[in-house]
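User: Predict the complex.
Assistant: Input components as received:
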Amino acid sequence: MDLLGKLKETLLSVLPIMAIVLILNFTITPLGADKLWRFILGGVMLILGLSLFLAGTDIGMVPVGEKLGSVLAHKRNVWFMLTVGFIIGFAVTMAEPDVSVLAGQVHDLNPSIPGNTLILMIALGLGIFVDIGLLRTVLKVKLKWVLFAFYSIVFILVAFIGQSMASISFDASGATTGPLAVPFILALGLGVSASTKDDSDSSFGLTGVASIGPIIAVAFMAMLATKSSGSAAAAAGESGSISFISVLLETLGETALGFAPLFAIIMLLQFTMLHFPKIKLKNILLGILYSFIGIVIFLTGVSYGFVEVGMYLGKTISRNFSPVLVVVLALLFGGIVVFAEPAVWVLTRQVETVTAGRIKRSMVMIFICMGVAVAVALAMVRILAGINYLWFVFIGVGLSLLMTLVTPSLFTGIAFDSGGVASGPMSTSFLLSFALGVSGTADMGFGLVGLIAISPLIAIQILGIIFRLKEKKSKKEVRNAAASE
Amino acid sequence: MLLLQNNLMIAIVNNGHARRFVSIARESGAGGGTIIPAKGTATGNFLRILGLGDTSKEMILMVIGGDLAEKIVEKVQSDGRVKGVVALLGSEKEENMASKWKMITIIVNTGYADDIMDAARKAGASGGTVTHARGTGTADDGKFLGVEIVPEKEMILILSEAEKTDKIVNAISSLKCLDEPGIGIIYTQDVTDFRNLDPKK
């Protein structure tokens, strides 16, 4: 049965991070009984929630997104497709809990930017870029040219707004493509491209293009807003002991608020254009219910057990031990935490399905892990050495754009999709708190999520280039064998 | 006459077991196979009601010579690591031996597999395997911004005892949601042999 298999997989992906924290607990940074128990409970909830969520997206969100994409392509009406694509991109973003959290943090940093306007702008940005991504698929424009064009705009904008807002705008893009939006946007892109004959080249990339939207939207906001230096006071204060029930209720409320509009849209679509038959519909509704329960359990576990531990570890280790240890730990945490990121699982499975097993999920996973590990380590170096964030963005994104010229286009798509995907609730909670703990101020902590989002762009494209070289080699061997016969 | 003795062997195994199966078959002398990702639907009632009954499977297609099938199945069984079933289609065995099993194939527009499996089960089928495919020739084909649009399909394979086959086919084709022109096709084939790959006790 698949649910058991999923449980086993998620168990394997959450256990390493728990093991490391436990080892730290018994060696250099004792957490104390209270934090330790909460961490363990949180870990168990992570495993259960993630398994349920994954089982749910398989039978719920993914079929809906795919069918919707295919119906949109079959209508053969561009305006209709763009309208529906925009509405869905917009609604899903408004629903994503990470976005409202981010908007709150930004408001604290620069009070001249109202939180609600920011959410609206991010959602608008995502909606528009979902459309751009869909148009690209149907018009068969090469993904790399679209990326070149829009990232050039991003570079120009970012150069004007200074590093603190720049880091926020990249964070915004990472936050938008969370566990709620990714299965849906991914499946939408797959659905549209599956109905157009050449498949795998255009199957991926929609999430990647969509995640440019929030960067541009936030950068615009920053340019328009009157520049106030903003008191970058530490939002990193230690909240007292929080009760389990209140965390659960808060998460439940936020998630329900997010799911409600999405659910309403899906039902509306069911009666107007999807028309799933009876039993399929029942399974889809069950699937959505499972994802909902799963994500509530997951998020509760994260914020109840992991946030405080992350911050505590960051603070204690950076004060008492050498910076080298901080960077090494960051490398370790970065690589391991991604395994527990729900959206990464959804993406890598889609990759395996679409390529009919040619590209193994474990391979994509490993490369994303390596990328994120390096990114988190670099982020720590940045915090400890105070390097300007813009350098990382220019070099990172610039390099990955140049790589698109030699990477097979399928891998470019997967790479830019995994960018947004790698930065989900685990990195925004555990890793971000670790970084905040290390830096002590909120200002420097920003940008971590953005860096995590940039790293897979390079890592997966390296995988793509390796793949291409291998294929060339095996083709040559076949040819040589044929020649010698 | 050598060609006639080739059979199509279809194996449906648990996810990840296909490679092992193919390598064992190669050792026994088969040429090679094609592996297709698929979804199995045969599990307990309780999970099905919860909507969690589907499992990932792999389907292997192989064309092999007449007596090779027996050898492969025996080897796989004694290896014991591959879980799944094997069906042999194609050239008829002895005329007088009517086959006890049939394979029903349904090819429909995407999204109907769950409902079809439900109907089939009520008519006595034990389970089925679903894969994704793409159609080529319906009125639905056409161009959209210069791109050809083709319908996505689901292909469903059901192995059933010969006497139940008619009932299952009728149950599926009388489904209300399939009451649309051009939605899909259904056909049956004789299965010359059908085996479980579980190790012999």
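Chain A has 21 helices and no strands.
Let me know if you want any component modeled separately.
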